[in-house]
Write a structure and sequence with these properties.
With about 475 residues, the protein is of the alpha+beta class. Helix 4 packs across helix 13 and helix 6 packs antiparallel against helix 8. Bound molecules: 4-amino-1,4-dioxobutan-2-aminium adenosine-5'-monophosphate and magnesium ion. 4-amino-1,4-dioxobutan-2-aminium adenosine-5'-monophosphate (4AD) binds next to strand 11, strand 15, strand 16 and helix 13.
């Protein structure tokens, strides 16, 4: 087999019959009779398998016995037109090499469909299933499309730090980073932990958002975006929360809230369009297996103008809806997923961009409105997901920002570097954060966020 280079299954399926080829991959199934074996081979390059036809008389019993679900093999043979339905070409095997066997008595992924819960318990092997192959290829395609989108628009990809001493969202949901000896913590005279002896000489954590550093970039480079992992120690065991998730955060100088909304809407639509155009086979599979309305829903989002309304208008609709919510609504409350989904799925039946939230339920950096009560925040709310994007125009006035920092008891000192953007050459600017896995929930139609990231991190779970 050495003299022939391997062709990926995705490419094999598009080749003309009548040539010598070499395929390598994992056996999905083997069936057949006394004279011929049919092997479905997959190498992860596509949801589709290539069919291998092996005449039993040409191969030893011993070899054929090792070709079981999960085994890894190489097959050399002729690509021929397939007589069976479902595929145009197949490989008539001439030579088969076993790279790695998979004992049928212990290989956990047998032919039958497994529950998502079971697959989560074997997350190290689930990429070999059709479903996770499809999800992970779509995840890759979306990551690529995100970089392409911003690159085409002239945004600079800014790498913001993962270890930080500031809490961007001010919600106190941070994982501490320390090298102090937990069994023997150094103490100050007042009996507090002495972080001056810690690795960084101060208390540090994993970042919840790259925004604050992103703003520094925008105030120099004009338009930037970050795309990296973020961490939240919130104890939310929901199908939409991870403790480690990826976030895309564009930040733009000279953008006001309207520009920010326009970008967010165009951005999501472009990504969904990219998926529809470039992930057809995988989307079709997920549509057929999990969610019969998936492709229709994706197409409709691309064509729909998102509804824009203020928080105050939204609350009014919810109050007048006559709906019994688990969490009661009134002006000032933070919207729960059930409220967001009512607006998006029942009332408007369209994605919604909600703006102008009460200042007390939003972060310190949002631009303050004239009314003294609300801030220029915006959340994009999606069907089946709820909040997919959170963002705002930023407060560009140093005095107002300092007043707000004091009001909520944050420290001006530790944010001195951030306040310098307002002290020197301040400008109106805006940005938002798109939760990558929330986007993937929407695009793949999966119903649990644990199933759109290879190795999920959730409360009490850090396997692999
Ligand atoms: O609304 P959030 O908290 O906003 C920020 O962090 C801002 N600093 C972003 C910015 O303006 N640059 O988070 C943004 C998005 C949410 O809309 C949601 O999609 C996602 O991040 N997200 C989560 N995704 C998965 N698991 C979690 N625990 C998440 N928390 C937020
Ligand atoms: Mg938010």
């Amino acid at each position: 087999m050495k003299d022939l280079t391997r062709t990926k299954v995705k490419d094999l399926l598009r080749l003309e019959a009548g040539q010598e080829v070499l395929a390598k991959g994992w056996v999905r199934t083997k069936r057949g009779n006394k004279s011929v074996a049919f092997i479905a081979l997959n190498d992860g390059s596509t949801i589709n398998n290539i069919q291998i036809v092996a005449d039993v008389e040409n191969f030893s019993d011993e070899l054929l016995k090792k070709i079981t679900t999960g085994a890894c093999i190489g097959v050399r043979g002729e690509l021929v037109q397939s007589l069976g339905s479902g595929q145009a070409v197949e490989i008539q095997a001439r030579e088969i090499e076993i790279f790695g066997e998979a004992d049928p008595n212990s290989y956990p992924l047998q032919k039958k469909g497994h529950s998502m819960e079971y697959l989560r318990s074997i997350a190290h092997l689930r990429p070999r299933t059709n479903t996770f192959g499809a999800v992970l290829r779509i995840r890759h395609a979306m990551a690529f499309a995100i970089h392409k989108y911003f690159n085409d628009k002239g945004f600079v990809y800014l790498h913001t730090p993962l270890i930080t001493a500031s809490d961007c969202e001010g919600a106190g949901e941070m994982f501490q980073v320390t090298t102090l000896d937990m069994d023997n913590l150094p103490r100050t005279e007042e009996g507090r932990i002495d972080y001056s002896q810690d690795f960084f000489g101060k208390q540090t954590s994993l970042t919840v958002s790259g925004q604050l550093e992103g703003e520094l970039g925008a105030m120099a480079l004009g338009e930037i975006y970050t795309f990296g992992p973020t961490f939240r120690a919130e104890n939310s065991n929901t199908p939409r929360h991870l403790a480690e998730f990826w976030m895309i955060e564009p930040e733009m100088a000279f953008y006001e809230i309207e520009d920010n909304m326009n970008l967010a809407e165009d951005f999501i639509k472009s990504l969904v369009r990219y998926a529809l155009e470039n992930c057809k086979d995988d989307l079709r599979f997920l549509n057929d297996m999990f969610d019969k309305e998936l492709i229709e829903r994706l197409e409709s989002v691309v064509d729909t103008k998102f509804v824009r309304l203020t928080y105050t208008e939204g609350i009014k609709i919810l109050e007048e809806s006559g709906e019994k919510f688990e969490f009661p609504v009134s002006w000032g409350v933070d919207l729960q997923s059930e409220h967001e989904r009512y607006l998006v799925e029942k009332h408007f039946r369209k994605p919604v961009i909600m703006t102008d939230y009460p200042k007390d339920i939003k972060a310190f950096y949002m631009k303050q409105n004239e009314d003294g009560k609300t801030v220029r925040g915006m959340d994009v709310l999606f069907p089946k997901i709820g909040e997919i994007i959170g963002g705002s125009e930023r407060e560009s006035s140093l005095a107002k920002l300092e007043a707000r920092i004091d009001e909520i008891g944050m420290s001006r000192d530790t944010l001195g570097w951030y306040l310098d953007t307002r002290r020197f050459g301040s400008a109106p600017h805006s940005g938002f954060g798109l939760g990558f896995e929330r986007l993937l929930l929407f695009v793949t139609g999966m119903s649990n966020i644990r199933d759109v990231i290879p190795f999920p991190r959730t409360p009490k779970n850090a396997e692999y």
